[in-house]
Design a protein that fits this description.
The complex is a heterodimer. Chain A is built from 8 helices and 14 strands. A 10-stranded mixed sheet of chain A has the order 4-3-2-1-5-10-11-12-13-14, with helices on both faces. In chain A, strands 6-7 form a two-stranded antiparallel ribbon. Chain A is 26% helix and 23% strand. By secondary structure, chain A is of the alpha/beta class. Chain A has a single domain, classed as Glutaconate Coenzyme A-transferase (3-Layer(aba) Sandwich), CATH 3.40.1080.10. By secondary structure, chain B is of the alpha/beta class. Chain B folds into 2 domains: 207 residues, Glutaconate Coenzyme A-transferase; 51 residues, no CATH class. Chain B has 9 helices and 15 strands. The chains are: A alpha/beta, B alpha/beta. Chains A and B meet through helix 3, strand 4, helix 4, strand 9 and helix 5 of A and helix 4 and helix 5 of B.
């Protein structure tokens, strides 16, 4: 019995990526968990920006929606929606953006729109929300989703948010000024884009997982780093802080 | 000057079958009472516009009020799917609906263009995404000064915008505060507008950071205390997160959904 579950490992691994004083654009679910965990542990001055317009929100427990009252009450300021997207996100004022998705491909492009054909969907998903512009404009993007052949696909059913496009140079050609996906965090390990080829490479395994397990759950021939590392297991302090947020 | 009247009368006079209706409120101040009044009056063939359709449009879609939905994120926040929306898109129940989707940034700029009296707005967005090919209201545009290729989105001009706010005074001036979302732009972009409020007060108290809509840009004001439930009204009520979770089970099944609407909204 290792004392933590895969979701907690994901949240902890993502939280460790957030530096103190950085500005982070946060969505609901695991991103909100990770950002608030970072704020409760090593990054007390992390600035949380929720797309509802709350800048510098300091919730004491995890909100269910991006517009919960506590976010507005604890924020440094609350701005209207045209401002959050046009003045704060678009010009590149955000250091880190978090995105989840139903599907990711080898270049970190994301689908949160539809599974199957667009006009005859097998599963209609909620759609874009803030994701395309978060993917376009944040200095770095962290992608968080669970690893499976259904989610790690060779070809997306729909491109909702552009990662590294079809490879090197594509972001610049499309006029996307942020850095794009810098890390993909799953329940099995961590992947980073290769600096030259921009294709995702497995760089870390979480404790107790194997390369075979990751490759089995990936729908393309996943590259593995020569110096493959192991993620440090969640510490008792991290777990206590995370569980305290969810109470 | 806005006319202060009852919610049933305002909806009857303002919203017609076939209208394009925007009911806005970004997780906060969602005009549920007005949406329910639309349902009770049996409006049909509506084009429903809203960044985050939420439970309110799930209900109207499930009752067959909508022919088309224009949106940027159609989910139950923090919970999952909007099952009535999905049933309509995936299986055409109760009838097929047309969809037109955008990103949030695109939708806010469409409202800004509408409120500004411009035919379109410009942003950095959409490039390289599948959304570009799916919507007739998005197109590339070249900056006349730098030659850079940007994205244009067409203005939104709803026939009617409906919002909920904290207070209005007797002249129909409206004040809302907290998360103010896209409501100001949505009202200013619309041809007609209705604001439901928690209460009509003798005089509005000036509040830093609040949005004030002068009575002369609003057509009707109607009192609807608790009118944003199960969302919330900052200073008046809290979001009923449990109901958002319960809606998942209520809305999953067609019969259970219809029975719930009959018992809680229509009856």
């Amino acid at each position: 019995m290792r004392g933590w579950d895969a979701g907690e490992m994901m949240a902890v691994a993502a939280a460790r990526q957030l530096g103190d004083g950085q500005v982070c654009f946060v969505g609901i679910g695991l991103p909100s968990q990770a950002a608030n965990l970072a704020r409760a542990t090593h990054a007390p001055h992390l600035v949380l920006v929720y797309e509802s317009g709350t800048i510098g929100a300091k919730p004491s427990r995890l909100p269910l929606s991006i517009g919960d009252g506590e976010l507005a009450e604890t924020a440094d300021t609350v701005v209207a929606l045209p401002e959050i997207f046009n003045y704060w996100l678009q010009p590149g004022r955000i250091d880190v953006g978090f995105l989840g998705a139903a599907q990711v491909d080898r270049f970190g492009n994301l689908n949160s729109t539809v599974i199957g054909d667009y006009d005859r969907p097998q599963t209609r998903l909620p759609g874009a929300g803030g994701a395309p512009e978060i993917a376009a404009s944040c200095a770095r993007v962290l992608v968080v989703l669970r690893h499976s052949r259904r989610s790690f696909v060779d070809r997306l059913d729909f491109i909702t948010s552009v990662g590294h496009g079809r490879g090197p140079g594509d972001r610049a050609a499309l006029g996307l000024r942020g850095g794009g996906p810098a890390l993909v965090v799953t329940d099995l390990g961590l992947m980073e884009p290769d600096p030259e080829r921009k294709e995702l490479v497995l760089t870390h395994l979480h404790p107790g997982t194997s390369v075979d397990q990751v490759r089995e759950a990936t729908g393309w021939d996943l590259a593995v780093a020569a110096d493959l590392g192991t993620t440090e297991a969640p510490s008792p302090e991290e777990l206590a802080a995370l569980r305290d947020l969810a109470r | 000057m806005a006319e202060i009247t009852t919610l049933p009368e305002a909806v009857a006079r303002l919203v017609h079958d076939g209208d394009t209706v925007a009911m806005e409120g970004f997780t906060h101040l969602i005009p549920f009472a007005a949406g329910h009044e639309l349902a009770r009056q049996g409006r049909r063939h509506l084009t429903l516009v809203r960044m985050t359709p939420d439970i309110i449009y799930d209900q109207l879609i499930g009752l067959g009020c909508a022919d088309k939905v224009v949106f940027s994120w159609a989910g139950n926040p923090g919970v999952g799917s909007l099952h009535r929306f999905r049933d309509a898109v995936e299986r055409g129940w109760p009838h097929p609906i047309e969809i037109e989707e955008h990103s949030h940034a695109g939708m806010v700029n469409r409202y800004v263009a509408g409120a500004s009296g411009l035919p379109f707005a410009v942003l950095r967005g959409y490039r390289g995404t599948g959304l570009m090919d799916r919507s007739p209201t998005v197109a590339p545009i070249t900056c006349p000064f730098t030659g850079e290729v940007l994205t244009a989105v067409a203005a939104l001009r709803p026939d009617v915008t409906v919002i909920h706010a904290q207070q209005a005074d007797r002249q129909g001036n409206v004040a809302l505060w907290g998360i103010t979302g896209i409501q100001r732009e949505a009202v200013l972009a619309a041809r007609r507008s209705l604001v439901t409020v928690e209460e009509v007060v003798p005089a509005l108290k000036p509040r830093p950071g609040s949005v004030l809509l002068p009575g002369w840009v609003v057509d009707f004001v109607a009192e609807a205390p608790g009118g944003s439930y199960p969302s919330y009204t900052h200073g008046y009520s809290s979001r009923d997160n449990r109901f958002y979770e319960e809606w998942d089970a209520i809305s999953r099944d067609r019969e259970r959904f219809l029975a719930w609407m009959e018992e809680n909204v229509l009856g």
